[in-house]
Write a structure and sequence with these properties.
The chain is 35% helix and 17% strand. The chain has helices spanning 2-14, 26-39, 42-47, 54-65, 92-96, 114-129, 144-150, 152-165, 250-262; strands at 21-25, 71-72, 80-83, 103-110, 171-178, 208-213, 217-222, 226-233. An eight-stranded mixed β-sheet has the order 1-8-7-6-5-4-3-2, sandwiched between helices. It is globular, with a radius of gyration of 19 Å. The two termini are 37 Å apart.
C-alpha cells in the first residue's frame, strides 16, 4: 500500500516539473497592503471599483513588483501605472514581458458572470429590504483553461484600452479577475496550475496578462516566458503564515487587511468565506 501511495505522489510531483514560478514572502504581501493604504490618497483608495477587483489588482501588482502605483485612474486614464526605476533584481520579462521600459501600465477587467451580475445584487437588495433572499446560487465547475477562454473578450477589451491610453515605450499589461462563484475551477486545490494551461495568444500590443482566479491563484502570461504561477509563502523556517479565518484563502486574508488599513468599508464580493451548514444530530 505504501509503495502505491509513494508512486501516486511521485506522479503528481512529476506533473509540476518545468513549471515556472515567481514567489514572494508573507512579509512582502503584508507590506504591500500597508504601503498602499499609506501612500495613496484616501479619495483614490475609495474610488477603486471593488466589484471589478481593482483593489485586488493594485494589491497584488504592488506586492510582486515591489512598487506602489505612481498613478491610479480617476478620470479615464490607465487603471494603474507603476514606475520600474527601482526594480533591480526582479524578473521583469516574466512579470511584464519586457525589461527595457521605465513604466508599466495595467488595465483591470473582470470576467462577467451570473453571481456578481445577478445573484449578488438581488441578495443585497433583499437583505436591505428585509425580504426573503433569492434561492441558492448554482454554478458549473469548469477547468482553469475554461476560465481563461471566458476571459478572452475582457483581454481584448483591456488591450484596446491600453492601445488608446498607453504607449509602446511602456509595458502594457491586462489584469483579469475571475470570481470563483461565477466559474469555480477544478484545479483550485492544486498549488501550481500554470503547467496545465493552454498557450495564450493575446491581441497585439499586450506584453503580459495577469489573472487572479479568485480566491486562490495568481497567474501571469508574458510574451517572454509563457505562463507562470505567482506564489506566496515562507522563505525561512522562522517565518510562518498569518492566522486567517477558517474557510478563507490566504489571499483573502490580505484583501481584508488592505480594506481595513485603507478604511474601505464597502463590501467586496471577493471577501467571503466558505461555511459548512450545521446539522442536528440526535
Amino acid at each position: 500500500m505504501s509503495d502505491s501511495i509513494d508512486d501516486d505522489i511521485a506522479r503528481r510531483l512529476d506533473a509540476y516539473v518545468g513549471t515556472h514560478v515567481v514567489a514572494i514572502s508573507y512579509d512582502v504581501m503584508d507590506a504591500a497592503t500597508a504601503v498602499l493604504a499609506q501612500r495613496l490618497p484616501t479619495e483614490t483608495l475609495h474610488a477603486m471599483k471593488l466589484a471589478s477587483g481593482e483593489h485586488l489588482a493594485a494589491m497584488l501588482a504592488t506586492a510582486y513588483l515591489r512598487a506602489v502605483p505612481v498613478a491610479v485612474d480617476v478620470d479615464g486614464g490607465v487603471d494603474l501605472t507603476f514606475s520600474l526605476k527601482a526594480s533591480d533584481g526582479l524578473d521583469l520579462k516574466t512579470l511584464l514581458g519586457r525589461d527595457d521600459v521605465e513604466f508599466a501600465d495595467f488595465e483591470v477587467k473582470s470576467v462577467p458572470g451570473p453571481f456578481r451580475e445577478k445573484y449578488l445584487p438581488a441578495t443585497t437588495r433583499a437583505m436591505e429590504r428585509g425580504e426573503a433572499q433569492p434561492p441558492a446560487h448554482q454554478a458549473k465547475v469548469v477547468s482553469a483553461n475554461d476560465v481563461i477562454e471566458a476571459a478572452t473578450g475582457m483581454i481584448g477589451k483591456a488591450a484596446g484600452q491600453l492601445r488608446d491610453k498607453s504607449s509602446p515605450d511602456r509595458a502594457r499589461v491586462a489584469f483579469i479577475v475571475s470570481h470563483f462563484f461565477d466559474r469555480p475551477f477544478v484545479e483550485c486545490l492544486q498549488p501550481l496550475i500554470s503547467q496545465a494551461l493552454a498557450p495564450l495568444d493575446p491581441p497585439e500590443g499586450v506584453d503580459a496578462v495577469w489573472m487572479y482566479l479568485a480566491p486562490s491563484h495568481v497567474l501571469v502570461w508574458s510574451a517572454a516566458s509563457g505562463w507562470s504561477d505567482l506564489l506566496l509563502g515562507s522563505f525561512t523556517e522562522e517565518e510562518i503564515g498569518p492566522e486567517h479565518a477558517f474557510g478563507m484563502e490566504l489571499l483573502q486574508h490580505y484583501e481584508g487587511l488592505f480594506l481595513e488599513r485603507a478604511g474601505i468599508d464597502k463590501p467586496s464580493p471577493f471577501f467571503f468565506e466558505f461555511t459548512v451548514p450545521q446539522t442536528n444530530e440526535e
